[in-house]
């Protein structure tokens, strides 16, 4: 039987050949290694162990769902390659995850985040998330050649290796004036010829959030992208335009990232014009009468 390490390496090769993104490959490996960390076998694991792992305490539904999908992909690969005869993941229960709620930073929280001691490099990363809606993977790979000041655009690669050429926000254009024009904006400290890892970007922004005194645990580096979408909607930008700026495949995904502010909700409800409400129904009520000019009439 193939060792767990060899199986993970072979699975990674398979995913690369299928065009899966490096982020997806890393994420799946991390989730699969989580099973090993609990002293469980990986290649020879049975369905009962997988269920027990998914059902452990204090695990968010979203994490359980991600683990389940990683197991399904991995064991399907093992079965198709003849490494295993069966596929234990086929008998895993489905996991229903409630639709996510937007979790943007407020403008005040964003200002606090920028003014609480974060270094210049981290502030620039934060601004790319807030003003361009970039994920940490896109922030990590910004290159000077991605910026076109003539067309006022920035080129990036989004989720699923989707290429995009997006309008450059004035704040990012201003930052670009002080950044390399033909090199990585955020080079790796270990190998400057390569960009910093997305995980390192996430860690730096996490540290800035903690240092700022923001205690809301729902606010993460990805919340900067939620802020981007929510702020655009709040400014009256058409949701279809927001979809394109966020490089989403569907409007339903965009709606997860966008929250309408309370002030906009108040404006919306106020836009519904009030109409006069009659004080009485106008219908006769049995047994109740009044007299008008000496004539008995029904009262309503």
From TrEMBL:
Keyword field contains Magnesium: no
Any single GO BP term: DNA integration
Domain Tyr recombinase intervals: 100-270
Database matches in Pfam families: Phage_integrase (PF00589)
SUPFAM superfamilies linked: DNA breaking-rejoining enzymes
One function term, GO molecular function aspect: DNA binding
Keywords assigned by UniProt, alphabetized: DNA recombination, DNA-binding
PANTHER family found in the cross-reference section: INTEGRASE_RECOMBINASE PROTEIN MJ0367-RELATED, PHAGE INTEGRASE-RELATED
Family (UniProt): Belongs to the 'phage' integrase family.
Name the UniProt record assigns to this protein: Integrase/recombinase XerD
Organism of derivation: Microbacterium saperdae
């Amino acid at each position: 039987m193939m060792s767990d390490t060899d199986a993970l390496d072979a699975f990674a090769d398979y995913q690369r050949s299928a065009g899966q993104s490096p982020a997806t490959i890393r994420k799946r490996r991390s989730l699969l290694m989580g099973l090993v960390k609990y002293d469980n076998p990986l290649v020879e694991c049975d369905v009962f162990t997988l269920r027990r792992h998914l059902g452990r305490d204090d695990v968010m539904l979203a994490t359980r769902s991600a683990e389940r999908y990683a197991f399904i992909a991995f064991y399907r690969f093992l079965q198709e390659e003849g490494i295993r005869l069966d596929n234990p993941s086929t008998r895993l229960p489905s996991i229903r995850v409630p639709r996510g709620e937007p979790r943007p930073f407020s403008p005040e929280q964003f200002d606090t985040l920028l003014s609480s001691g974060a270094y210049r490099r981290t502030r620039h990363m934060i601004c790319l998330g807030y003003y361009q809606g970039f994920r940490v993977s896109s922030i990590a790979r910004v290159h000077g050649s991605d910026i076109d000041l003539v067309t006022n655009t920035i080129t990036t690669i989004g989720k699923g290796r989707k290429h995009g050429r997006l309008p450059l926000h004035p704040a990012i254009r201003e930052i670009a004036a002080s950044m390399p024009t033909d090199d990585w904006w955020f080079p790796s400290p270990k190998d400057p010829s390569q960009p910093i890892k997305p995980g390192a970007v996430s860690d730096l922004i996490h540290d800035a959030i903690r240092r700022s005194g923001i205690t809301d645990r729902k606010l993460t580096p990805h919340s900067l992208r939620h802020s981007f979408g929510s702020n655009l909607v709040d400014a009256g930008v058409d949701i279809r335009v927001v979809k394109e700026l966020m490089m989403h495949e569907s409007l339903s995904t965009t709606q997860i990232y966008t929250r309408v502010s309370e002030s906009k909700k108040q404006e919306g409800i106020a836009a519904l014009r009030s109409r006069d409400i009659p004080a009485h129904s106008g219908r006769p009520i049995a047994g109740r009468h009044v007299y008008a000019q000496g004539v008995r009439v029904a009262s309503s």
